[in-house]
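Hi everyone,

Forwarding the result from last night's run.
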Amino acid sequence: MRFAFVTLSLAVLALAPAGRSQSAQSAQRTVEPARFAGQNCVRLAEWAKANGFEVRWLKQDETLQLSNRWSKIVLAADSREAQINGVQVWLLYPVVAQNGALCLARLDVEATIRPFVSPPRNQPGAKVRTICLDPGHGGKDPGNEIGSNQEKQYTLLLAKEVRAQLAQEGLKVTLTRSTDSFVELSKRPQLAKRRGADLFISLHFNAAESGRSTVQGAEVYCLTPAGATSTNARGEGNGERAFPGNRHNDQNLFLAYQVQKALTRNLTVEDRGVRRARFAVLRDAVMPAALIEAGFLSHPMEGRQIVSVAYRQKIARAIVEGLLAYKRAVEQGT
């Protein structure tokens, strides 16, 4: 495939990090756009230089690093996998190589890169005080089953451990279920709304259908922006419809990132990345929301760890640290 370059200039918002002046954050940086597969694309080197990033090829014409004193972003040609400050984050579209340049979809510039470089902030006085934890599955829905181990049992145990640790941090916590009961997916974000939750966190454990001895690690999902393809196993296509949860796209992504960073650094598990999906509990959440897959029950070693109390306490601690990091960042200056 080839790019069809156009002459119309594209104004791209400067992605200024926290601490920069308001005038710097609101400045416009203009780069010439390209089009690929129906998407407006931005040449990464041009965008980076216009927005105060140093540019360095890690592998000529294939892997590019953009860095400043706050952020380091690594992107590779023909890949949706990016590294942002050492954490894997899945892009909405692959990076495209054309005539010695790497190009990124404008939607990724706005919806994937910007929330990290210029983190979202709460409105003045708006604090994260109440968190709704959603233990996945329950009742007639066991979730993943590996031998006698059912996902629903361990998501509930994990939720109770996270609740206890968050309470020690002075936060109010509510659960969508506190027993082995079935709760409709559509009702879970509704419960969070009725209880005045500021964040919604759905807890799950993964399982692989094949390659069980090798597939392991943690991944955290947030809602896919309208018009983009998801990165979950089913890979929902380019849904043009926006859902209530899309009102918080920046917060959703930043929340998922903080939790994924805490999981991978505190547990030293494989980093499967921050991903996008249109899961029902994320679509209908009216507050920032993320869905955590904290490990693979199907993996021989990771599965044994998940069913142990001590390891679940470590998972809970990592989740709490990620939530607290998000809370500190969005409340800064409020």
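The longest helix spans residues 309-331.

Cheers,
N.
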